[in-house]
Design goal:
Blueprint lengths: L2 H18 L19 H8 L6 H19 L5 E7 L2 E6 L6 H7 L23 H5 L2 H5 L5 E6 L2 E9 L6 E9 L21 E6 L3 E2 L5 E2 L7 H18 L4 E6 L2 E5 L22 H17 L6 H5 L8 H11 L10 E2 L2 E2 L1 H13 L14 H10 L8 E6 L19 E8 L9 E6 L2 E2 L5 E4 L6 H7 L8 E8 L13 E3 L3
Parallel strand pairs: 1-9, 15-18, 17-19
Antiparallel strand pairs: 1-2, 2-6, 3-4, 3-6, 4-5, 7-8, 9-10, 11-12, 13-14, 14-18, 15-16
Helix pairs in contact: 3-7, 10-11
Amino acid sequence: MSTKSKTSKRRVAEHDNKQASGKLTRTTFRTSREMDFFTRKELVTQTGHGMDEWPCVIVKELMDNALDACEEADTAPVIDVIADETGITVRDNGPGLPESTLKGAMDFTIRVSNREAYVSPCRGAQGNALKTLLPMPRVLDPDNGRFIVTTYGRQHVITCGADAISQQAVVHHDVVDLSKSKNLQSAAGKKKQAFSTGTDVRIEWSQCVDNLGAALWPFGGRKMLSHFVQVQELVHGFAIFNPHATIRLECGDNAFEWEATNPTWEKWKPSHPTSSHWYAVPQLERLIGAYITHDRESKRDRLVSALLSEFDGLIGSAKRTRVLNQAGLKRMMLSELIVGGRLDTKRIARLLAAMQSNTRPVNSPRLGIIGEDHFRERFLAMGVKPESFRYCRKLEKVKKSNSKTNEKASFLPWVLEAAFGWLGDGASDSRSIFTGANWSAAINNPFRSFGGTSEGFETVLSDMRATSGEPVVFALHLTHPRIEYTDRGKSALVIGGI
């Protein structure tokens, strides 16, 4: 017998002796992080919301994606939301969801996002929206839950689960070419026309009923009617914060429509260049590191000059050359900013300083102002008495890049808008609050702490005698390029200096 075999047998014997003596010899197990998306408990952590709020999580994430897609294509958004007994559908008129994006979301070992590394006023910045929604149907309905995407004339039927032993993702992805599908044949035998543009996303489960035969949603806690009301309020919030969007909602037996008040309304779009004045050195390092990693995977490298061209005010070659000369980085590749296996913080700091000194900070109005007229139209449609309507806004006064005066001002622009209205004596004694940030409606109030007071929005309202039992409507919206949430579910943010 070899020495190796004798050693192995001796270790087994020692282990058996320890177990026989009543001692537990713990084994260190390796578990795949992919399970972070495949149980109710983990999805609650990933989304930042309890299971009874998942209908709103579904609607919020899909509406964020739909609005962004339309804006990137310079299309006035038209969004349809359908909530029925067996699922939730969100449909848009954008250019269509790229298949590469969908496939990236199905890889649960990585986070895929075209927002997370940039600093800009955008709706989503976490990089986990689709990744949390893909497994949700199977978590809700292990036998029949499905995630269905229809785009570019193809239907993707996706079911996601996890292997019970290896704890790794198991994804089934079936694709149907709708132009060739027999399911598109109408009753008259004529072929239906597939969608040529836009994306249709449906999260689907099988119908379930209670002991009395009433339809239920598989979310627990609340009855389906309560879920419908919750979804309606959230979609209404999106209509309040997006003047350019036409939004339609079918929720159970009810239908609602909010037509765009200004289809040509301008805001800072996801496709607009980002501004160097919104970055500190750590944020720029994060962006450069993300680009270097991306380029390594593509077996390429890019000039520092190419990175500069994506920033506001640095599109012109003459301005970029001036920045590179000041930073001492002319003709350098991004990968050369790595020294000793780490990013060279000093050189990146010089680069950022040169970028900021050669460009103008973005003034707050350029971010986009929702405006008094739009808030008034939405509020009056809710029954607010015209004479009670009030609107106010506060804008950060952005200082010039080379200014040494007005030190209280900032290079970070922001717009805070608020609206109020009274519903009258005949209205029910119930307060309605709509809150949001960067044109995305919040599921719950995210303004839980203002500056150093630790007081939240609802506390401030109560102090003003606008308690939950008053027939009033409030809306509060913040536009800011560096929104920082306390969790991945974007359920809370801390506001300082506003």
